[in-house]
Design a protein that fits this description.
- This protein has 799 residues and is mainly β.
- It contains seven helices and 43 strands.
- It has a 22-stranded antiparallel β-barrel. Strands 9-14-15-12-13 form a five-stranded mixed sheet.
- It is globular and about 80 Å long.
């Protein structure tokens, strides 16, 4: 592999050397925007094209569009819709452009183009496959936790503990191998446990992007499985104040949720702001034939952003607070090994509890605070320089089912485990101007982190620790022609970590220290063919050091009802990832198909100790199945398919396929806790308008998950559950509200009330998944005020 690294480094350096020889342009710019009529309402299916290229597209129901693959220079952008005057405007592309087009009817001479903003997007490895949820698709996931929302993307699954603690799985990899960026900041919490869900409010995002594959070059060593980008909208630039209110209700658990946004810009000051808040409450969930005890949830979240932007510089500040209280199913406690086996064999819990919003003991509370300040300067002479600093405070309290012993009852409300994690991060990125064929960036990032445990358990689940981490990276893109892009990246990382521990026998204190310094590289290419086809290829390597929990865990995880044991001899994971994807897009058919292979040396995973000595651990709190962290060499491979077939103007069929295969190549066997295959199908019929209702749709869907048969024999406490098929349906419409529209939708999940268990749910040992649920979702936009100039224009248009 040393030869591979040397070759990749030479190749990247060769690309940089070509800067002095290159003569053609970088063709990775884009134009995004919105098309509206003279009344301010969005226009659907407006045809847009760039006269000097073959690029073109149509607007969606919100009047929005994106055209990519644009070379720097002057281009004619044309917009056409029957009944409206054609717009032909000239745009000079030196960077990405965002515009607003106003189309007028044939008897009006006025044509308007507004250049809203220009910005250079944060550089990442573009040749790696990625998918996103935005607009209507994202709106339909409102009210779900982040992991459940991401399941709508092919290639993404979840690992969970019950229905309220959900973490994303990308191409079979999860936990510390998936990096989540919250508003551009790497999310750092007590995320080492499979039951530690991301402490992020999905309502802050207007787009969720999943990068499927190792993005270690851009984002650091923890991104060897993929990256999830939680991206809020840009701050408004139009003067005035507006917002929206999202309301969600569900019959199963009687969940209700409200989330609001208020934002605006102050006239003549370049100052913008946004305030956001969410409250969510859910009671006891119901499986098809019983209730799921103590499965309630409560969330209280809020955030605020303030930005000041000028043509060549800008600064913004962001703060968010996330708080949740999560109930843990209490039908998992056994007094002896025989009772534990009986719990595994039961078809339903011993105690069938009644509905309640109360969350009883056996719960977690998590509070996460993020403060971020970022700024940029940008001039044609040197490009763009952007800096970000952030602080995160994460507090996790874990309350077991039993109250801690105290003589006078002073500990009745105390948690067994108390984790306090403080993280500081900093990043500096320089995106240089195009030099011939070459564009790219050079950057550095730094992190320091400290964890303090103050629980009441006999021994800490993990020791106190501190680490320091720093990295340098360079990513360069070479546009060989209008159709061919080559990019490469190199990165060097250093990590220092020290644990502070106590000898259980002598009670003496001692420390362990690890140091890692490793280089990584990637190379990729994109080829845009004729007739709507494009092909991507990427190869790269990455690494991940074992977490403190994987090294030293020893204790009960109440949220998964398991006893987990670490291994202090674990080695660094090394990943060698290869992927390729084919894209096709026309007015009738859109297809994204990708295949990948990921070889991971020293792959760390949690192995059930079924059939081995000490398979069950007896403690004062009960008997629990034992899981050990072990290592092996593993090979992951698979394929993703996401397609849309526009059968008619109104009817659309969308299939999604996720295939994951994982092998333990050291022991010539399979791996445990690998997602089974997933097959999703949906058929949707749309009407542009029915009476006063717009964008009316009816959709029916099904999900097929076969039994996971690729597991080592007798390797788990219970066999993998049977496969299942779920059916769902949804209806929705929009109602005009001023210059915007109110969206209403109703969705039914598991309509057949199927009783099933999911292989990646730790509570599959004890209980079924939730039964039928009906959700109602309403989005209400509002406008507090507009500037006098905007009001005058609106009144003259109406007249």
């Amino acid at each position: 592999m040393l030869k591979l690294r040397i070759a990749l480094t030479i190749l990247v350096c060769g690309i940089i050397h070509c800067q002095l020889l290159a003569q053609s342009a970088d063709c990775n710019l884009s134009v995004t925007g919105r098309v509206v009529g003279s009344d301010g309402k969005p226009l659907f299916y407006v045809a847009l094209s760039l006269e000097q290229t073959t690029e073109g597209t149509y607007t969606d129901k919100n009047g929005q569009f994106t055209i990519k693959g644009i070379c720097p220079g002057t281009h004619h952008l044309q917009a056409y819709l029957i009944g409206y005057r054609k717009v032909d405007t000239v745009l000079n592309f030196i960077q990405n452009v965002s515009i607003k087009l106003i189309l007028t009817t044939d008897n009006v001479d006025l044509q308007t183009v507004q250049i809203e903003s220009k910005k250079i997007e944060k550089t990442s490895v573009q040749t790696i496959a990625s998918s996103e949820l935005s607009g209507e698709q994202l709106q339909e996931t409102r009210g779900n936790v982040l992991g459940d929302a991401l399941k709508e993307i092919a290639g993404v699954d979840v690992i969970q503990s019950g229905s309220t603690i959900v973490k994303p799985v990308i191409h079979g990899l999860y936990s510390n191998r998936i990096l989540i960026l919250n508003n551009g900041v790497p999310q750092e919490g007590q995320q080492w446990g499979s039951e530690h869900a991301p402490e992020i409010d999905p309502f802050i995002a207007t787009k969720l992007t999943v990068v499927k594959g190792a993005e270690s070059i851009r984002y650091g060593s923890d991104a060897i499985g993929g990256v999830v980008l939680v991206e809020p909208a840009d701050l408004p630039t139009e003067k005035g104040m507006n917002g929206e209110l999202n309301l969600v209700g569900m019959d199963n658990s009687r969940m209700y949720c409200g989330s609001g946004i208020l934002q605006g810009a102050i006239a003549d000051s370049s100052l913008s702001y946004r305030l956001q808040g969410t409250y969510k409450r859910a009671g006891t969930l119901s499986a098809p034939f019983y209730t799921i005890d103590n499965s309630g949830l409560m969330e209280e979240n809020y955030s605020g952003t303030l930005g000041y932007n000028k043509k060549h510089y800008g600064i913004s500040a962001y703060y968010s607070h996330f708080y949740t209280k999560i109930g843990i199913n209490r039908n998992t406690v056994a007094g002896n090994p025989t009772q534990l086996l009986e719990l595994f064999e039961l078809n339903k819990p011993i105690v069938d509890s009644a509905f309640t919003y109360e969350i009883q003991r056996g719960f977690q509370t998590v509070a996460h605070d993020l403060v971020k300040v970022s700024g940029f300067i940008q001039y044609p002479s040197f490009g763009k320089l952007e800096a970000t600093i952030a602080r995160q405070d994460d507090s996790r309290l874990e309350y077991d089912f039993d109250v801690p012993y105290s003589v006078n009852g002073t500990l009745d409300n105390a948690p067994q485990n108390d984790f306090e994690l403080v993280t500081h991060t900093a990043e500096l990125v320089w995106e240089h101007n195009p030099i011939g064929h070459i564009t790219g960036s050079i950057g550095a990032d730094f992190m320091t982190q400290g964890n303090v445990y103050t629980g009441l358990a006999y021994a800490p689940v993990i020791p106190n620790y501190r680490n320091y981490y720093g990295g340098l990276f360079m990513i360069e893109k070479w546009s060989v022609s209008n159709k061919f892009l080559v990019e490469g990246g190199i990165r060097y990382d250093y990590k220092w970590q020290r644990e502070y521990m106590e000898n259980a026998t002598t009670l003496g204190l001692y420390t362990n220290t690890q140091q890692y310094n490793i280089a990584s590289a990637s190379i990729g290419a994109t080829y845009t063919m004729s007739h709507g086809f494009s092909l991507d290829f990427n190869a790269g390597n990455g690494w991940r050091s074992p977490s403190v929990y994987e090294l030293y865990a020893y204790g009960i995880h109440g949220a998964t009802a398991t006893f987990e044991v670490g291994d202090s001899n674990l080695k660094v994971e090394r990943s060698y990832d290869f992927s390729t994807s084919l894209h096709y897009e026309s007015q009738v058919l859109e297809v994204d198909f990708g295949v990948y292979t990921n070889l991971i040396d020293n792959y760390i995973y949690l192995q059930p100790q079924a059939g081995k000595p000490d398979a069950e651990i007896e403690t004062i709190e009960g008997v629990f199945p034992r899981f050990n962290f072990v290592q092996t060499n593993a090979l992951f491979k698979g394929a993703d398919l996401d397609a849309k077939w526009h059968i008619t103007q109104h009817l659309q069929y969308e299939p999604k396929v996720t295939l994951v295969f994982a092998n333990d190549i050291t022991n010539h066997s399979y791996l445990v806790l690998i997602p089974p295959q997933r097959f999703q199908n949906s058929l949707e019929y749309k009407w542009k308008k029915i009476g006063k209702l717009a964008n009316v749709f009816v959709r029916v869907s099904n999900l097929i998950v076969p039994e996971q048969t690729r597991v080592p024999p007798n390797s788990d406490f219970v066999p993998p559950p049977k496969g299942y098929t779920l059916f769902s349906a949804a209806i929705g419409f929009s109602v005009p509200m001023g210059t915007d529209e109110m969206n209403v939708s109703m969705q039914g999940n598991n309509l057949m009330n199927t009783s099933y268990r999911d292989y990646l749910d730790f509570f599959r040992y004890y209980t079924d998944e939730p039964g039928r649920s009906i959700q109602l979702k309403i989005r209400i936009p509002f406008e507090v005020f507009r500037t006098r100039h905007e009001q005058t224009n609106s009144q003259s248009t109406n007249n």
